[in-house]
Amino acid sequence: MPTFAEEKLLWGQGIERVAGVDEVGRGALAGPVMAAAVVLPQNLKKTKWLREVRDSKFLTPEKREVLSDYIFEAAVSVGIGMTAVDVIDGKGIAKATRLAMKAAIEQLTPPAEHLLIDYFRLPEMALPQKGVPEGDSICLSIACASIVAKVARDRLMTELDSFYPGYGLAQHKGYGTEEHVACLQRLGPCVIHRRSFQPVRDAI
Description:
Layout: H1 5-11, E1 18-24, E2 33-39, H2 48-51, H3 61-74, E3 77-83, H4 85-91, H5 93-106, E4 114-118, E5 129-132, H6 135-138, H7 140-163, H8 169-172, H9 178-187, H10 198-203
Parallel strand pairs: 1-4, 4-5
Antiparallel strand pairs: 1-2, 2-3
Helix pairs in contact: 3-7, 4-5
């Protein structure tokens, strides 16, 4: 269960606005990579919804939707960033992921004073920061960011399904499921597929 242990170390040093940062969509074959940054208040009570926060991968879509709403309501600030497919193909997924995180952090109002990032460090950002291994499993701010980012990306992929039908984007959200790969091989890639990823190259 994620806790406020990392945040409390910083709050105890007088650092008030600590942002948890995480990404989603890094391994997908289609669609953007997205990131979220979430600053939670120090006085946030351990309410029922907060006790249910986990790494987004371990929550149902319905639970993520509910928790995302609670997070937006409770947070001091929330930012969401996105890097498009052409940048992923041009600069690589690692660079694209960092750009999405940077964009999410820059959306925070009021801004963050310190960053807690799932695994990553961001040399592009001058802010004090810490990369937290398995951060979305142990750090509440990062876990909240993982939920917000996942809900935002899933909603976008569901919307894109109506523009690019036939691939099942609303179901698999662009990830390389057996169904998705079969659709790729049958239809070929569309404009939101990542041509630098091997399964997409194989389908061209």
